[in-house]
Amino acid sequence: MVKIQILGRQIIKVTHVSLKEFEANPSMIWNYDVMMHGTWDANAGNVLNDNAINEIAKYIDAGKGVLAGHDTVGFSMGNTLGLSKIADKFNIKRGIWDNVTQNGYDINKSWGYLSDKIKISKKGFLTQFPWNLGPVGTVLNVPYTHTASNAAKGNVWMEFEKPGIDVIENGVRKDASILPKGPNYSYYLTTWNNTAMIQTGHSNGESTEDERKVLANTLFYLKQLTHKKEILDNSARDIANPNKPANITTAVNVDNTTNISFRKPEDNRKYI
After folding, report:
1. Secondary structure of residue 134 in the 3-state scheme
2. Which residues, other chains included, contact 114 with Cβ-Cβ below 8 Å and sequence gap of 6+?
């Protein structure tokens, strides 16, 4: 028997559901704050059916969080299959893949940006809770992965660091300069409103500590709604040290007890 060491903070509860189970009852999604689809490479080639996609679209429109994994938008899905059918809700542009065009596309080219290192390009709550991932420019290690004919037009939090680049037009390899300006072709993690796409998944279940932290932060970031009447809001954090109290005096009494008096700091007085 192998004892597994739990390193996480245990603040996210996860339920694993197979594709077959979900497609049989997609309304189960409403019992959760966030859904992630595709932790395996291209979700092991299994594409969500239209009934499930329609339910996910309603879920997104209601403000719930959805995270798309590697090769679940773009790739060979075009604009008619799986989550790629609702790529606009992720603000993702789709290309073709291996000259497969029958599924539709936004950009008539294929591209892939490849690396096992990513760099933080945007700072915010996503990079700070529950794990502080570092400032802009911090390089993190992830399993080797890539984009696959999907490009981000939303907020890009992390990009591939010094990636290999493969761009193909009409079956011929070309320079990346032929790609239309605007989208980010080298993104690793992008968000748009209450959705996100991450390139986690190409490694077929393998991960690094950095990647697990990025994934946890992203899932937490996507938690949008609650019906509770009270909430612990971890996004509202006061991490600065308070001002020191003033006029501190001490007095030792005859019974060997000590009295300490002080004036409340200016930054606290208005709240007390």
Report:
1. coil
2. 144, 145, 146, 160, 163, 164, 165, 166
The amino acid sitting at 69 is: G
Domain range annotation of the chain: 19-222, 240-272
Cis peptide preceding 130, ω within 30 of 0: yes
In angstroms, the CA 248 to CA 262 distance is: 4
Based on C-alpha coordinates, what's the Rg of the chain? 24
3-state secondary structure of 198: strand
pLDDT tens-digit map of 178-204: 999 999 999 999 999 999 999 998 988
CATH fit for domain 19-222, picks 3.30.70, 2.60.120, 2.60.40, 3.40.50: 3.40.50
- Percentage above 90 pLDDT, the chain: 65
Query: Distance of CA 147 to CAs 101, 153, 195, Å?
Result: 18, 14, 17
* Mean pLDDT (whole number) for 142-161: 97
Q: Is the pTM of this model over 0.85?
A: no
Determine if residue 231 is left, alpha or beta; phi over 0 gives left, psi from -120 to 50 gives alpha, anything else beta: beta
Report which of residues 58 and 239 the model is more confident about: 58
Mean pLDDT taken over the chain: 87
Integer CA distances (angstroms), 121 to 92, 130, 186, in order: 18, 18, 11
